[in-house]
């Protein structure tokens, strides 16, 4: 039994698809990252980025921290920063769901909303200006090696162990890309034939948590050689699959998880055999004020 909240980060369950996967020769597992204490896969990266920086002395409890986020990373950073007694300002586009903003504030973070028409790129520009002009320290998830290393140390080994070393394909949405980079690095070290599949939105689709970055904003931690295949999904496909996950599999998750599941199911249809693991990166309750689950 753990008595430390931070010990509860990671060790998330794998559940097998009972309904959606119809290929009898393929096993499809969903890794339920909503079971992390902050409710998403980003707890892993937030913990590793903050703890590693404190251990190195990169900042202290007197430092002013800032980070641009589309939501889940902000919630995770707010929670972890609160546990360590750190002050943090989180910057998001103003169209972020109400639940995300309120959750960050509940954990004690300052939340700044930037115009929605400049998106997460505008939030990143705002945070960089505060670093340049006011002495803030940015966590910088997009260029922070401790982001992907969190998944090298935890997510990858968990998948390898919990599939009894049988995983053949790993499917993950690509946003900051920390999850896919770290998990790919670990799994490829165990078996370089494991296929790593990234999920991106189709052109003109907006899927929170999945991005097709302009070149100037491409995360510095991203290494294209660690992704074997990219599958594009539409906004409508991601929404529909998020609803199906809840109704048919009992898995209540957000739109990016729906996008990853849609890609995993499309992949499963093409395989003669295999063991697929798809990341379900968060819980659906932080999307209830959006239209995601409206019929």
UniProtKB/TrEMBL annotation:
Mitochondrion: present as a keyword of the record? no
What are the EC numbers?
2.5.1.47
Please name the top-level EC class of this enzyme.
transferase
Q: What is an example of a Pfam family matching this protein?
A: PALP
Q: Name one GO biological process term.
A: cysteine biosynthetic process from serine
**Pathway noted in the entry:** Amino-acid biosynthesis; L-cysteine biosynthesis; L-cysteine from L-serine: step 2/2
What molecular function does GO assign, one term?
Answer: cysteine synthase activity
Required co-factor(s) are: pyridoxal 5'-phosphate
Taking every annotated instance into account, which residue ranges of this chain make up the domain Tryptophan synthase beta chain-like PALP? 7-282
UniProt xrefs under Gene3D superfamilies = 3.40.50.1100
SUPFAM superfamilies, per this entry? Tryptophan synthase beta subunit-like PLP-dependent enzymes
Residues annotated for pyridoxal 5'-phosphate binding in this entry: 72, 175-179, 256
Cited InterPro entries: Cys_synth, Cys_Synth/Cystath_Beta-Synth, CysM, P-phosphate_BS, TrpB-like_PALP, TrpB-like_PALP_sf
PROSITE patterns recorded: CYS_SYNTHASE
The reaction(s) this protein catalyses: O-acetyl-L-serine + hydrogen sulfide = L-cysteine + acetate
Q: Which residues carry this modification: N6-(pyridoxal phosphate)lysine?
A: 42
Family label: Belongs to the cysteine synthase/cystathionine beta-synthase family.
Please report the name of this protein according to its UniProt entry: Cysteine synthase
Organism equals Pseudozobellia thermophila
